[in-house]
Design brief:
Blueprint (H helix, E strand, L loop, with lengths): L13 H22 L4 H21 L15 H5 L8 H12 L5 H19 L17 H24 L1 H4 L3 H10 L1 H6 L1 H16 L4 E3 L6 E7 L4 E6 L5 E8 L8 E5 L5 E2 L6 E2 L1 H8 L12 E3 L8 E4 L2 E4 L5 E2 L3 E2 L6 E3 L7 H4 L6 H9 L1
Parallel strand pairs: 8-13
Antiparallel strand pairs: 1-2, 2-3, 3-4, 4-5, 6-7, 9-10, 10-11, 12-13
């Protein structure tokens, strides 16, 4: 994606470029929400573009070169003139995690990349259910609108959370965020048809003793819970398909001890009853089931959020107490011998290192 040459000047400051990117991102997002019912194709294209611009704007806050695909061969003048090829959304997420140290959850990555992939299909192909049903092009197949509504509800949930985490950078646009939040309720109303279809199944599940709760993505009372330990439950929404893992701990305030619920989408929280903060230390104390002495354990880091020694064992699972990601296994770096939750295969890590060390290659590099 290239930037518009006409809107660039070699004299623009980094702050001006950031503001321009952010304004464009909000423009595309507002247009996407407004186009949802009439032109779902362009709504998808513009929503994906908005997400891409928000990720690049956040990278811009660190350095302009981070949004360039081939930064070592590109000058800032080329970037400002729109002659530089910028990175993909996938690469933007990777750089935010690995170079900036920003936590982008797997749920956010999946939501954003699903929208991006749908955008690419919309651009290159015309699907039968995306063709207008009348000459005016006003009515589209319900299946298309439902899919777009679901994708955008998931995408907005994750984007809104990131914008809240990045509030120091995006605070001047709080009013526009609030307006988009209100506009997105139109998507939720449309998904009422889906809710009606699955309501009989929800009734059966409740009668069978399955706990149903509100979905954080689409807001419908349609998320079924499936306990996997006394403290962990899988969440699955029957309306929008959003999935997550919920963590339940007792409030650390001995005078309260009320149950507190958290998940990777919502992050750390407070006890609703006594307002006690539930942070990484409190989660570690509540979830750690490893009874071995400290020197017999393997220290475990989290590649998702760059958390150092933030992962604890909880039964057969491993939980990052910083970003709340959960896994059933972890890798061990061949160089530093520390565990790592997420981040892919550590084969060859003795030489290349892991997210938290530079391996043998880095060791020799220090001697050069």
């Amino acid at each position: 994606m290239a930037f518009d040459k006409s809107s660039r000047s070699n004299h623009q400051s980094d702050d001006e470029i950031f503001n321009s990117l952010t304004e464009s991102a909000f423009d595309f997002l507002e247009r996407a929400v407004g186009e949802f019912r009439g032109t779902p194709k362009f709504s998808t294209i513009h929503f994906a573009t908005a997400v891409e611009l928000f990720l690049k704007a956040r990278l811009m806050r660190e350095h302009w070169s981070l949004v360039i695909d081939d930064a070592d061969k590109t000058s800032k003048a080329q970037f400002l003139e729109g002659r530089a090829r910028t990175i993909t959304p996938f690469a933007a997420i990777s750089r935010l995690r690995n170079l900036v140290g920003v936590s982008i959850s797997p749920e956010a990555e999946k939501a954003f990349l699903a929208i991006s992939e749908h955008r690419n299909k919309m651009i290159h192909f015309v699907h039968e259910d995306e063709k207008p049903k009348n000459k005016d092009g006003e009515l589209f197949e319900k299946s298309t609108l439902e899919r777009v509504a679901i994708e955008q509800c998931r995408g907005w949930l994750q984007l809104e959370r990131l914008l809240a985490e990045w509030a120091d950078h995006f605070r001047p646009w709080e009013n526009r965020i609030e307006k988009i939040r209100a506009s997105m309720k139109g998507h939720q109303k449309f998904l009422g048809a889906v809710f009606e279809r699955v309501s009989p199944e929800l009734v059966k599940l409740e009668k069978a003793g399955i706990v149903i709760q509100d979905c954080e993505s689409c807001s419908f009372f349609a998320t079924k819970t499936a306990p996997i330990t006394a403290n962990l439950s899988d969440l699955d929404c029957l309306v929008c398909g959003a999935k997550d893992t919920q963590i339940m701990v007792s409030c650390p305030n001995e005078e309260c001890e009320d149950d507190v619920y958290l998940n990777s989408s919502s992050g750390h929280s407070k006890c609703k009853k006594c307002k006690t903060e539930i942070g990484a230390e409190e989660l570690s104390n509540a979830l750690d089931t490893d009874t071995r002495e400290y020197y017999d354990r393997t220290d475990k880091n989290c590649a998702w959020c760059s958390g150092y020694h933030t992962v604890v064992q909880h039964g057969d699972y491993y939980v990052c107490c910083e970003c709340l990601q959960i896994g059933t296994d972890y890798g061990v770096c061949g160089w530093c011998n520390e565990g790592q939750l997420g981040g892919g295969d550590l084969e060859g890590s003795h030489y290349t290192g892991c997210e938290f060390c530079d391996g043998l290659r880095g060791w020799h590099g220090d001697d050069d």
